[in-house]
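Morning F.,

Quick status update on the modeling queue. The single chain you submitted on Monday has been processed. Sequence for confirmation:
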Amino acid sequence: MFARIARFEGGEPDSMTAQVREDMASGPPPGLEDATGFWLLVDRERGTSLGIVFFADEEGLRRGDEALNAMSPGEGGGQRSTVEIYEVLMREELG
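Structure tokens below.
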């Protein structure tokens, strides 16, 4: 499993969340069909957020990364400042 983590500076978390929900209302956007999950983490005090998209394999990650790089954060989404790719060695849900 792989994760693409994009960091955003500025923006409005509630606006960003609404935009992501709208974009995904009819299914994943083109290029993200292979995504297996998405997390949006925000730090309201610092005005930063992380968008984490999970993929089962490197090929899906490659297509997803290309599609996401072509997208802009949208109104209220702030500025994408970094993108990093990680292999997920462990993912455990507790509880």
